[in-house]
Amino acid sequence: MTYAAEIIHAGTAIALRAQGGQTARFHAIWLRDNAPEPETIDPANGQRLVTLGDIPKETIIGQAEISGDQLVVTFQPEDKTVSFPISWLNRHRYDLVQGQRRDFLPEGAKTWDQGFAGDLVVSDYTALCNDRAALGDWLAAVRRFGIAKVTGCPVRSGALMELVDLFGFVRETNYGKWFEVRTEVNPSNLAFTGLGLQGHTDNPYRDPVPTLQVLYCLENTVEGGDSVVIDGFRVAERLKEESPEFFHVLTRYPARFKYAGSTKVCLQARRPMIEGTPDGTLQAIRFNNRSCAPLVDIPFEEMGLYYEAYRRFSELVDDPAMAVSFKLEPGECFIVDNTRVLHARNSYSSTGSRWFQGCYADKDGLLSTLTVIEAEQAA
Ligand code: AKG
Predict the structure, then answer these.
(1) Are 167 and 335 in contact (CB under 8 A)?
(2) Could you tell me how far CA 163 lies from the centroid of its own chain?
(3) Mean model confidence pLDDT for the chain
(4) Which of ligand 1's atoms lies nearest the C-alpha of 227?
(5) What ipTM was assigned to the predicted interfaces of this complex?
(6) pLDDT digits (tens, 9 = 90+) for 239-255
(7) Atom of ligand 1 nearest to the CA of 356
(8) Percent helix, strand and coil across the chain, each rounded to 5?
(9) Closest residue (by CA) to atom 6 of ligand 1?
(10) Quick one: pLDDT at residue 314?
């Protein structure tokens, strides 16, 4: 592809034109701030060595030319010449036409409902330990669908820590590095009973909320106790399709969540049930009937509407058409994106035993590992 560069807007921007293709404009200040040269960006770690205060406010582009596959720019008043690989500029272009802007769903996410049961990615634990490509596929499923299962895991207390080690780091909480999910006398959480649990995201009373949860089965001979998962992003999509008003009221006001179920613990958060980025992409769902505290941040005039929207969201969570269910066997587990996928549990009998362990981790570590694996595979 042949390119031409034209200084525009009195040097405060440049237009990079691809012959027979699109034009992308870049601001002088943006280019200077991102200059890929060793006085600006440390070549060893990619971190920026300057602050905005080091860059003159009146920065303009004095000269620009295409040289091979580089755009060579001289910034004034610094009289600093910097080469930008055109491939890099293309990857980082922000001068997008309408329609290329952000979508409602995060990049790469695909929503699902009941019909997803057959497509749920199930990987073998030994393969995940020994084969980077298999691990990459499994992590990519979590990124795309917010859930993936594993079979063939060690049936040993604490072994879920080794699963998390494959991609990231456990988030330790007041429940410990991991927690036992089985029927307890005087449970500190209703999860530790045989009661059914409505679809929920875990621990919305934390800020930041744990962004991943693993539920790992060690014993399961009870009647019932099936695991159920629901794509909260699909619920949000449906809500928005049915009633933009309901959708917006749940995004517009923070809900309150609280947990003070054991001594010396009082966790509280004030966050919306549906959270989006400022440019309108879904970011997080927080939904948990057990730990929703009195809602006090919604104006009187809007509270009625808010409760109607909250009720409809809850009905959609309970709609069997949205749910995928399975019964975990010992040595099986699943991981969910806890900012997206709700999990539920059917009630179970008091005969037989059901012993799960659960833990939290975070998506940043998982996505980092996935990006590294993808780069290894592309190399
Ligand atoms: C939780 O620990 O967050 C649960 O929802 C328990 C799920 C289960 O027992 O299957």
Answers:
(1) no
(2) 19
(3) 96
(4) 10
(5) 0.96
(6) 999 999 999 999 999 99
(7) 9
(8) 30, 30, 40
(9) 191
(10) 98
Ligand 1 atom with the smallest distance to the CA of 343 is 5
Residue 156: half-sphere exposure toward Cβ, Cα within 13 Å: 7
* pLDDT value of residue 189: 83
CA–CA distance, 50 with 120 (Å, rounded to integer)? 46
| Tokens read off for 264 | 């010396």
Does any ligand 1 atom lie closer than 6 A to the CB of residue 215? yes
Cα separation of 75 and 63, whole Å?
7
Pocket probe for ligand 1: among 182, 195, 197, the residue whose CB has the most ligand atoms within 8 Å is 197
Ligand 1 centroid–CA 191 distance in Å is 5
Query: Contact 121/145 with Cβ under 8 angstroms?
Result: yes
Position 166: which residue type?
Answer: L
Interatomic CA distance for residues 165 and 36, integer angstroms: 34
**Residue 197: φ, ψ to 5°:** -125, 130
Atom of ligand 1 at shortest range from CA of 344: 5
Confirm whether pTM is higher than 0.80. yes
Q: What pLDDT, in 10s, does the model give residues 57-110? A: 999 999 999 999 999 999 999 999 999 999 999 999 999 866 666 789 999 999
